[in-house]
Predict the 3D structure of the following.
Amino acid sequence: MRSIAEDYELVAPGSLPEVLKLLAADPGAWTPIAGGTELMVQLGAGRLQARRLVSIWNLAELRGIVATDSSLRIGAACTYADLRKHPIVAAEFRLLARAAGWTGSIANQNRGTLGGNIVNGSPAADSSPALLVYGAEVELASVSGVRTVPYAAFHTGYKKTVLAAGELVSAIRLPRRFASYYQYSRKVGPRNAQAISKVALAAVGVVRNGVVDDVSIAVASMSPVPLRCAGTEHALLGHRLDGALIASARAALAAECAPLDDIRSTARYRAHVAGNLLEEFLRGLLAAGDTNP
Ligand SMILES: Cc1cc2nc3c(=O)[nH]c(=O)nc-3n(C[C@H](O)[C@H](O)[C@H](O)COP(=O)(O)OP(=O)(O)OC[C@H]3O[C@@H](n4cnc5c(N)ncnc54)[C@H](O)[C@@H]3O)c2cc1C
């Protein structure tokens, strides 16, 4: 059954300090709404339990992308369109730019935000594998100040995060050290656009003198949370990249993922395809040869 609009309250204080004050005054009572592309679907379906919504859409403090020599700070309310248009994202964080282009439709990309994507916490979220391989950090703001957590520690379980009542995601920070890395990502779904992934993999790496010098791998839709594949990385690091190593890496990936059977796919299909994607990344890395970051 559809929701009735009068049952909901929406306020738009217009500045970050005002929003944080409101969240602190009654912790847990207000739900932030950014682009609304998740929440409005729930509203339309009569499933939106949050009754009091505070808009953070277009807050200047959450919208900018600021670069220093060593990092890129992306405001949590930046949209996919903002990400796709940004020259540093496009040049250095190619997997994030690509994920932004994969997400939904153009309308969705104009409205959906990076902060909303990670707080929503879907294990199939398109931005998550890219953020994991780049070693992103998440800034959490409240009236008490800002704390920073590694994105790899942000999801604590299926659709659960470390966000406390009264906190907002204010920004996502990326270290600027991957521009010269070989970068790979692929999303496998029922079709090329407007699809939720059956499985997705993102990875970056560097080979020196034929040996894996640095590598970072993450998968979506392969466990209850988006997963950084530390065991697979460990199996690769410091070893000569050849067919035997690729086979060991496939085995390591299968050992650390726990895909499910669900309406979108089967565990068996997901495990096999994830192995294929890993192999495609590693063969590309091998062909790219030595790089000098
Ligand atoms: C048609 C359609 C297609 C889609 N396709 C894809 C796809 O291909 N890939 C994909 O990954 N997703 C997809 N999505 C999901 C959605 O668009 C994204 O997850 C989007 O990034 C959500 O951002 P939002 O700003 O719209 O979130 P909202 O709906 O505003 O909020 C989502 C959740 O996050 C919370 N929240 C938002 N911002 C913050 C913040 N800064 N701090 C704390 N909490 C916050 C809200 O309280 C809410 O719980 C699709 C959705 C639709 C409707």
Summary: Residues 31-39, 41, 56, 76, 102-104, 108, 111-113, 115-117, 119-120, 125-126, 168-169 surround flavin-adenine dinucleotide (CB under 6 Å). The two ends are 55 Å apart (CA to CA).
